[in-house]
Design goal:
The structure is a single chain. The protein has helices at about 5-15, 20-30, 75-85, 90-95, 100-105, 110, 115-135; strands spanning about 55-60, 65, 65-70, 90. The protein has about 140 residues and is mainly alpha-helical. The chain has one domain: Sufe protein. Chain: A (Alpha-Beta Complex), CATH 3.90.1010. Helix 2 (about 20-30) crosses helix 3 (about 75-85).
Length: about 140
């Protein structure tokens, strides 16, 4: 059950013929995101398991999941933008029910990413899952 923002990305992927164009599109998505302020680039928000520097900052209120993120690598920043499109403004239950691997497979990104990038993507997905679980257990107050 992907969001409208993710569905738009999926539709755009269908129109791009080769992976070079798709990578450029993902990078453009990352460039369009507002940068994360340095104050949020701290060990508590850093995602371990990524070759690049990656930070994810949750903003969870009531049952609504949102997050911001950033990376020092442009392609990873673009992957964060895709994750934002997939998960932002979803309920905690929907975040936890989302089969992110299947959604990324729809884009073909599961096969197009290097092993190192795939590991980093899995680490980001695991962090998102853990954030949603913790918020659900804590009564969904700001985390």
């Amino acid at each position: 059950m992907a969001s409208a923002a993710f569905e738009e990305i999926a539709e755009n992927f269908e129109f791009l013929d080769d992976w070079e164009d798709r990578y450029r599109y993902v990078i453009e998505l990352g460039k369009a995101m507002p940068p994360l302020e340095d104050a949020f680039k701290v060990p508590a928000t850093k995602v371990d398991g990524c070759a690049s520097q990656v930070w994810l900052v949750p903003m969870i209120e009531a049952d609504l999941f949102r997050f911001r993120g950033d990376s020092d690598a442009m392609i990873v920043r673009g992957l964060i933008a895709v994750l934002v499109a997939l998960f932002n403004n979803q309920s905690l239950v929907d975040v936890l029910k989302t089969d992110a691997a299947a959604e990324f497979a729809r884009l073909g990104l599961d096969q197009a990413l290097s092993a190192q990038r795939s590991n980093g993507l899995r680490a980001m997905l695991e962090r998102i899952r853990l954030l949603a679980q913790a918020a659900q257990q804590d009564g969904a107050v700001n985390v």
